[in-house]
Amino acid sequence: MAYFYASQPRLFMEFLPQEIEAYAAAHTRPETALLAALNRETHARMMKPRMLSGHMQGRLLSMISRMIQPERILEIGTYTGYSALCLSEGLKSNGILHTIDINDELKPILDRYLGQCARAEQIRVHFGPALEIIPTLGEKKFDLVFIDADKENYSRYYDSVFPMLNTGGWIIADNVLWSGKVVEPLKASDLETKALKEYAEKVSGDPRVEQVLLAVRDGLMICQKQSE
User: Fold this and answer.
1) Is the pLDDT of residue 97 over 70?
2) With a threshold of 0.85, does the pTM exceed it?
3) Using CA atoms in the order 129, 130, 136, 138, what is the torsion angle rounded to 10 degrees?
4) Cβ atoms within 10 A of the Cβ of 88, count?
5) Which of 49, 180, 187, 189 has the fewest Cβ atoms within 10 Å of its own Cβ atom?
6) DSSP states along 160-186
7) What pairing do the DSSP bridges indicate for beta strands 72-76 and 220-225?
8) Is-contact 88 97, C-beta < 8 A?
9) How far apart are CA 126 and CA 74, in angstroms?
C-alpha cells in the first residue's frame, strides 16, 4: 500500500557542509533495524519523507528521553512514527507515550512499526485535531512534550500543554529554523514562518522557562519549565 500527502514536499536547508554531516552521522550510534526499516519505507512511499526525524535527530531525541526517563510523554505530530519510537526508548517501565496526528491514513504504517516496538503497549496513538485531544489525556502531568505538527499552531500547542507539564519538565519544538526562512525578510503571505518566529519569541520571553535553540537539522528549540 502506498502512503502519501497531497501537497508537494518542502526542501530543507542543510545548515552544515555535507562532509561534516556525514562525519557526525558516522560517529553517532546507528539506527536500530526497526528504525532503519521505517526510514527506508517512509522515503520509498511518502511524498514528504523529510518530515521524518531521521538518524541524527532521532538519536538526539532518544538520548534526551533516556536522560530524563519520563513517565509520560506527549508528541504532537506523529507522521510515520519514527520520533515516537525514538522518544519511547527512555520511557520508564510504567510510562506512557501519547502521540497525536491529524491524518488517520497513516494508521496502517503506524500499526506495523509501533506494533513491533519493545514498548508497543506503552504507546497510545490518537487521530484528530491536537488542540481538541490534548485536554482529554488525563490529569496526570507530562514530563516531556515534543511538538512537530502544523506550524501555525505552535504557540497554541505551547499554551495548551504548559499547564499539563510538570515543573522541571521539557518541551522540544522541531523546525524552528524553517530552512533559514526565520532570518529572511518575512512575506505577508508566509504564515508558517511568521508563526515559527512568534513561537521562538514567545518561548524566549517566557520567564517560566529556560531555553536553548539548537541548529540541529531544521532547528530544535528545547525549553525546561522552571515555574508555573
Assistant:
1) yes
2) yes
3) 160
4) 26
5) 189
6) HHGGGEEEEEEEEEE-SSGGGGGGSPP
7) unpaired
8) yes
9) 11
